[in-house]
From TrEMBL:
The keyword Transcription regulation applies. Involved in transvection phenomena (= synapsis-dependent gene expression), where the synaptic pairing of chromosomes carrying genes with which zeste interacts influences the expression of these genes. Zeste binds to DNA and stimulates transcription from a nearby promoter. The gene is LOC113497467. The lineage of its organism: Eukaryota, Metazoa, Ecdysozoa, Arthropoda, Hexapoda. This is Regulatory protein zeste. Self-associates forming complexes of several hundred monomers.
Length: 245
């Protein structure tokens, strides 16, 4: 659920406060803004600064995004500003719609306007394609030609692996829940069968008790018949042994 919440919030457009904070941060760290932090040390420094910027921006009013989303937003923002200026043909930043865009152009793009930029590797397709609108002007969906930093790809790959693991875990838990439900149902059926067996055993016990009582009654009757026969025999003997008068 946490992942879903973060993903949805990252699709909202940044607030003006967040955009201003990003530009101010990049003004203090121009090498990060221009993608000039290279090599092992540069990569580590870039990662550290992006983590720091992500914490700063996410604590401001506006959407909460993962670091990779802010990296892409900055690249797309520069690309949009560059495209707007170039489209006017005169390279005049005064044609831009907002002070934020003018500042981005003047600080990071003006000196690079006449250079031929090389195509670079596109970012992963699942990175959110949402952008901030300045003064009601929507930015174009473009990918900046600044280099994609290696640690960003590693972060994306790690998130993909984590998502795959979570999906497998949810599937396994679902299967386990189904198995437990079947086990509970089987236990319920078994309990019902044992209850019926107990009832049958009780009925059988009652039948045995009645049979035993019947045998006792028969035994008593047999004893009475025997006594009666003995009495009859004694009477007959007395009759035949008495002399006639």
């Amino acid at each position: 659920m946490l992942y879903i919440r973060v993903y949805l919030s990252s699709k909202s457009r940044p607030s003006m406060e967040q955009v201003t904070a990003i530009v101010d941060f990049m003004e203090k760290h121009p090498a990060l803004a221009l993608g000039q932090l290279r090599g092992m040390e540069g990569r580590d420094e870039s990662k550290r600064l992006w983590f720091k910027l992500t914490r700063i921006v996410n604590n401001l009013s506006g959407p909460t995004r993962p670091m990779k989303s802010w990296i892409k937003y900055w690249a797309d923002k520069k690309s949009t500003v560059r495209t707007k200026v170039i489209s006017y043909g005169d390279g005049n930043s005064n044609n831009l719609c907002s002070n934020v865009e003018k500042k981005i152009w003047d600080l990071f793009l003006a000196n690079d306007a006449g250079k031929t930029r090389k195509p670079v590797k596109q970012e992963s397709s699942y990175v959110e394609d949402t952008y901030f609108k300045d003064d009601g002007v929507e930015e174009d969906n473009q990918v900046d030609s600044d280099p994609v930093m290696p640690f960003e790809e590693q972060t994306m790959d790690m998130e993909q692996r984590q998502n795959a693991i979570m999906e497998r875990l949810v599937k396994a838990m679902s299967e386990q829940a189904g198995a437990l439900a079947q086990l509970a149902q089987a236990a319920h059926v078994s309990a019902q069968a044992m209850h019926r067996a107990a009832d049958a055993a009780q009925i059988q016990s009652q039948a045995i008790d009645r049979l035993a009582t019947t045998f006792e009654t028969i035994n008593a009757a047999t004893h009475d018949v025997r006594n009666a026969l003995v009495d009859i025999d004694s009477t007959m003997k007395r009759l035949y042994s008495t002399p006639g008068t």
